[in-house]
Amino acid sequence: MGSLQDALLNTGLASEEQARKKPRKPQAKGGKPGGNKGPKKARGGKGAPGPRTSRKPGGPLKERKPQSDLERAYAARMRAEKAEKEREKQARVADQEARRKRNLELDKLVEGKALNVPEAELPRYFEHIGRIRRVLCTPEQREKINAGELGVVSLRGGYLIVEPEVLEAYKAIAPDLVPDLAGKEPDAPEDDDYPPVPDDVTW
Q: 36-79, pLDDT tens digit by residue?
């Protein structure tokens, strides 16, 4: 079977000079023969870098050491102690806020109703919150306190003389701030700076 050149010559479609020329090779897109040569190699000829590690140059890989039972127990104890301190702090804050609101309510209750007299010099002693306390009153007030016709309440560290109805309302809100005046009056404490009352004085 003849070549393509012989066939062209026989049919008269090409001259001998044209038939002797070699056909050109097809060019790749962009004008360069040979087509795409594939992706370029990474700089240095070593290809794409691999995943990073925490190993220092020339050193072994460092692996995180698992916690021991002792370390886990210590961490759990520290978390528990921190949570307990936080609960105690919140409880103190809540208690202080409750006391503040209660004191404001008690202030309104006794506002303008306290019977204390600035000129009063006669002490009436009583026990309250584990200590001997006193309130200064007039002889008439002291007699009524002993008869239960007047009461005494505590507010912000001081003591107020009040009527029985105020005493009952006060006791409903803060029973711990109402001293018990029943029974025998205790003796004055040794560190009391008020002069003692003579035994022969009658009221």
A: 555 555 454 455 555 555 555 555 556 666 778 888 888 899 99
Cα–Cα distance measured from residue 97 to residue 191, given in angstroms and rounded to the nearest whole number = 34
- Find out whether 133 and 179 touch, Cβ atoms under 8 Å: yes
Give the whole-angstrom CA distance, residue 15 versus residue 119: 147
Unique residue bearing structure tokens 């029974």: 183
Distances, alpha carbon 102 to alpha carbons 11, 42, 155, 173, in Å? 123, 79, 10, 8
Pair 202, 139: CB distance under 8 Å: no
Tokens of 57: 């140059």
Q: Among the listed ranges 38-47, 87-96, 110-119, which one has the minimum average pLDDT value?
A: 38-47
Q: Cα separation of 66 and 24, whole Å?
A: 70
Q: How far is residue 65 from each of residues 53, 58, 62, 68, measured CA to CA in Å?
A: 17, 21, 9, 9
> How many Cβ atoms from other residues are within 10 Å of residue 152's Cβ?
26
For residue 115, which amino acid is it? L
| Local confidence band at 203 (pLDDT 50, 70, 90 cut-offs) | very low
Tell me the per-residue pLDDT of 139-189, one tens digit each, with 9 for 90 and over. 999 999 999 999 999 998 899 999 999 999 999 999 999 999 988 898 888
Report the alpha-carbon distance of residue 184 to residue 178 in Å, rounded.
17
Please tell me the pTM assigned to this model: 0.53
Compute the distance between CA of residue 147 and CA of residue 179 in angstroms, rounded to an integer: 15
**DSSP letter (8 states) at residue 148:** T
